[in-house]
Give the backbone structure.
Amino acid sequence: MKIRETMIPALKPIGGEEEIAALKEVIESGWWGKGPKVAEFEKKFAELVGAKYAVAVTSNTHGQDLLLKALDIKDCDIINPTMSFMSTAVVPLWNNCTSNIVDVDKETLCLDPEDVKRSLKPDTKVIIAVNMAGVPAPIDEIREFFDGFIIEDCAHSCYTPGAGTKGDAAVWSFQAVKTLPCGDGGMITTNDEALYNKLNNMTWLGIESTYDRVSSGRKGVDGKLRPGYAWDYEVNILGYKYYMIDILATIALEQMKKLDKHLGIRRHIQKRYNEELCSEVESPPWSETVQYYCSRVPVEHRDRLIDYLADKKIHTSVHFKPLHKYEIVKQDREYPVADAVWLKLVSLPVHPGMSEEDVDYVVYWVNKYFDEIK
């Protein structure tokens, strides 16, 4: 097969005229900050995932941080999985907590409930359970022995049916290469009204949003309500600058309309890889979102395959290097599963911009590599 001139990216957002037209409308409206589009996105997203409340924030990372601050979680132990992005390990540190990193299940790469149980400490107050590559974390099993707060990290599972319904609260990601991307951004979902109200007030330094104050009008010196900007406000709670803006929410709303179609393409690519890649390539657990296609190959061939595919204009990645490998969160313990499995991982391209010919190309060159080494 002839080598391509352009690279097939491992991950890529796909937008179009719909996003451009929607952004044009927002830009011309003069309202670029947090306003009606954010409110619309929060409402529609809560409905999508079956939550009562949703708070749009700047990122999944900030969502996790805001939850800990709203719950006054600090100076304690927080458990999180070693197979994850750095956010889950460092957010506890932002709140003066111990980042207690545990091993994972060898099949799903999600938290291993038995290792969670072994790793519990008297001051463990929170567990961050990551739905790795869209595969649900074993929260029900963990509930059998842990009654503290569980944050369900759904960064990879928008939308896996049932995602976000097991934890006490869920955090989501709309970063540029996620299944519902808008450049960057996140969402917190919860069924707890008191927690929702507190989170909402904390997203902008404890200040009621400018849009809400413009919408409600301004009282004059005579007490009459007039249209305009109510510039005076109180601040009764310590807050942060974590709110989403309408420009990002507008992109997210358009991407939400395409979510089913895009997930269908991702699942189709997953199915083709599962059926057509050679026996040396182990398929990951089935995912309804396929945020990443984390295949496994023999350890001695992983890095060579990555180089080989790069020469053929196929971009791959590894999700993830275990968190305990980083000096800033290094742990004094062993990780037999993660240490063995991550050396086999290679994420193959999967995104809604891929054509059938692109999938053919990836399958051909992966299989060709293993044919050539026989």
In short: The CA atoms of residues 75 and 97 lie 5 Å apart. The chain has two domains: 17-257, 259-372. The radius of gyration is 22 Å. The chain has a mean pLDDT of 95.
